[in-house]
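Catalogue entry: protein

Sequence with per-residue tokens
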Amino acid sequence: MRFVIHGAGALGSLVGGRLAASGAKVVLVGRDPHIAAIMERGLEIRSPEDRQIISNLSAYTSLDSIIPSGPTANDILILAVKSAATPLAVQELRERFGETTPLFCLQNGIRNEELAARRFLHVYGIMAGLVVRMIEPGVVAQIFYNDLALGGYPLGCEGTGRQVAEALRQAGFNVTTHDSIMAVKWSKLVLNLNNATLAIIDCHLQLAMVTPPVALFMAEVVDEALRVLEAAGIPVIEPANPYNLAAYVEQLRQISRGPHGSAAVDAARHLPVDQRAYPSTWTDLQEERGDTEAGFLNGEIILLGEKFGVPTPYNSTLLNVVEQLAVERARPGRFSIEQLSSLVSSRS
């Protein structure tokens, strides 16, 4: 198999790099200067345990560069672009690869597989339970977590899916396969709703998980989403699902009842920058990109809430605030968690 990873940012590069390190043939397609750095000195992957330089892969800024003589019969496409870029990326891939080429959506959100299935016959979803950051061009860090969940779209997980799952296991990931991958991806979407929270208040995940008022706010965001999904009849229960959302909410509520200003908070505040788990939405604001994925995350909950009559003051506030910050090219940290909570109260 040759893995063609289209949208090789932090996540795509990590997956591609570890596949290559395990002996797989890998092609990364991404943006300069990241690709230029990989071509010059290889891809560096950092983890708390070690650092690897991976050179046995190819890296390009254009799909056309990788197939001058046409695609190969054993190509596996892995789509890793942001959700807003999916329609164009699927179009670009379909112009160069046949409709029977297997395509795996390594993306947040729950609409990408549907779009891909309009152009490709064999579509799969991959849920990435990973925290990855781009440290600098050519260098990505896997902060923690190591889970991938994989399944066919809309249902099942047949031969090719299981072969790719095994290749990912050989690359060192914890991989589960699922007959209903979208239940797992809905679970991940609910977890990702607080990406906006952490970006708005400029807080990394390790600090959030030991700070009582932040944990309480995050619990309310997830609880609100679960009420919406229950009203909409959307399941998040699936055998071997890495996420138990009810348990996660209870964990957050327990943290919220803990002491303020603890030693754990102090330790999290002094964590080295390259070990902090910031969500991609934080990076979008920090780099002043002008947009975020919040519309494909919080926006999904808001729309379902409107359809099924469930109020969504938390998710509506998060979407409105983070989109405004993005438009203004404002960096993370404009609001404290107390100010953000007050904005929610004004909507309730």
Observations:
- The domain at 2-179 is CATH 3.40.50.720 (Rossmann fold).
